[in-house]
Write a structure and sequence with these properties.
Length: 184
């Protein structure tokens, strides 16, 4: 009910004198975050710095009432932590326990994420999807990478005196914006 607009026109006498507000419902946002937690991200405190960035991201998602999907790439296979839930404070506990180790199943994580986003897009066509990839880019082969159907951002966490720069190549293959963590 739009009470100010109704009362500005005088006392309502019939139903037609009442003004109603249209309910506008903006489409939900989904942030899909893929975190590379392989052993190479332990070097030069790269993953520790990424945790600070992720904590800020989770806080922003909570404030904006965005939905989160979180996929970690470490060991031999990627693992879903959260799939399309509203951001919540329990993500801080998960973030504190996040450790690095094993191989880099980042390509498998990207493929899994593409499939999941496609299914989700069919289920929620109005949802605005965004992809965030946090990685040091230490991959051997980038030929199997395809661009997602949503805006993407790759954050390069590679540190140290010798940088391979593979994250830039991965960002180009994903058609994603590229940022180094030192720039943020």
């Amino acid at each position: 009910m739009n009470w100010p607009g109704t009362l500005l026109n005088g006392r309502p006498r019939v139903r037609e004198d009442l003004l109603f507000q249209l309910r506008t419902r903006s489409p939900h946002e989904l942030w899909l975050v893929i975190v590379d937690a392989s052993a190479s991200t332990r070097r030069h405190h790269a993953l520790s710095d990424a945790k600070g960035l992720l904590a800020q991201l989770f806080d922003d998602a909570y404030r904006q009432r965005a939905r989160l999907a979180l996929l970690t790439a470490s060991g031999t296979t990627p693992k879903w932590q959260v799939q399309g839930l509203k951001a919540f404070s329990g993500l801080g506990v998960w973030l504190d326990q996040l450790g690095a180790g094993g191989g880099t199943p980042l390509l498998a994580a990207l493929a899994q994420a593409q499939q999941w986003l496609t299914v989700r897009r069919k289920r929620f066509p109005a949802e605005q999807q965004r992809l965030l990839v946090v990685t040091d880019g230490r991959l051997k082969d980038l030929t199997a990478v395809s661009a997602p159907e949503c805006p993407a951002l790759l954050i390069d966490i590679e540190r140290g005196p010798i940088r391979l720069g593979r994250a830039k190549e991965l960002a180009a293959a994903l058609e994603a914006d590229y940022r180094h963590i030192d720039e943020l």
